[in-house]
Write a structure and sequence with these properties.
Radius of gyration: 19 Å
Shape: globular
Strand order of the largest sheet: 3-2-1-4-5-7-12
Largest sheet: 7 strands, parallel
Structural class: alpha/beta
Strand content: 15-25%
């Protein structure tokens, strides 16, 4: 298939491009800079639809990272606006194409679900968090899903906390353990629904190829962990102690509003992926960390 990725130069996009190319697909990347074969978009006067030809699938990973910055009012606006602007432009491109793609796979996040220590969320759950991340993800999904008016299947992949080498959420999480200062963060009871970046890329490819998958799709490993157990597993894999607790107020001082990412959490299960036969390469945290951290232990 010919697959177009918006946001293909990022952490997930690079792994996804690798997975798709290995599977024999043609990959085209939309980028603000037309280099390394990418097609320029989101700059004044560009008309990427004139250069794309017939496309089988679009993947939208574009947007300012939620892992950077302190979630100031300005940064929150950048996070929100970047997602809305990129998705609007993708919808315009798809509308302008004479041959419509079969599917739009849009990035999303489990942050749409309210934080809870007791609720287990599946795709059937309808609760939406009344906070910045919940509202952002909800609006983003609604906008992406409007592509169905063009006769295009819509799949919003609700990513969990993505773990991998050289990016994502893991590097700052393992740093205290490298310094022999790792330990429980906050209460330790908050859920962390994680997923290996390789399984994220494979799940996106799976969603493209399986017509049964439609909005939304939880993209998390089937065995989430509570934060204290997550830290203990890091310590075990890295052969470091898990003993130095970090109180919630310290995280709030250090991270500001973004501290919600580590002090609150959701217990999320990938019901649709499992029901449709997707097999995770890394269903358990210990094996995922052993793969990612093998050069650090």
């Amino acid at each position: 298939m010919k697959i177009v990725i918006a946001g293909g130069s990022g952490f997930v996009g690079q792994k996804l491009t690798e997975v798709l190319l290995q599977a024999g697909h043609e990959v085209v990347v939309l980028s603000r800079c037309a280099k390394n074969g990418a097609i320029q978009w989101l700059t004044e006067g560009t008309t990427p639809e004139k250069m794309l030809g017939k496309v089988d699938a679009f993947i939208n990973l574009a947007g300012v990272s939620i892992n950077d910055g302190r979630w100031s009012t300005e940064h929150q606006k950048q996070i929100y606006d970047s997602r809305m602007t990129a998705t609007d432009e993708l919808l315009r491109i798809i509308s302008a194409l004479p041959h419509k793609p079969a599917v739009l796979v849009n990035a999303s996040a489990i942050g749409i679900y309210p934080a809870s220590e007791s609720i287990i969320y599946t795709e059937a759950s309808t609760a939406i968090a009344d906070d910045f991340l919940g509202r952002t993800v909800n609006h983003w999904e609604q906008k992406a899903a409007s592509v169905t008016a063009e006769g295009v299947r819509s799949v919003c992949m609700r990513f969990g906390v993505i773990l991998g080498k050289g990016g994502g959420a893991l590097p700052p999480m393992i740093l205290p353990y490298k310094l022999f200062a790792g330990g429980k963060v906050g209460s330790g009871r908050q859920w962390l629904s994680w997923v290996h970046v390789e399984d994220v890329a494979r799940a996106i490819a799976f969603a493209i190829e399986n017509d049964n998958l439609q909005d939304p799709v939880n993209t998390t490993a089937p065995f989430p962990k509570q934060m204290d157990d997550f830290g203990k597993t890091i310590g075990s894999v890295m052969h470091r102690p898990h003993w130095f607790p970090v109180p919630s107020f310290i995280m709030k001082i250090a991270l500001g509003k973004k501290s919600a990412l580590v002090l609150e959490g959701q217990h999320v299960l990938p019901e649709k992926l499992l029901a449709n036969g997707f097999v995770f390469n890394f269903p358990h945290l210990e094996q995922a960390l052993q793969d990612i951290l093998k050069d650090n232990v």
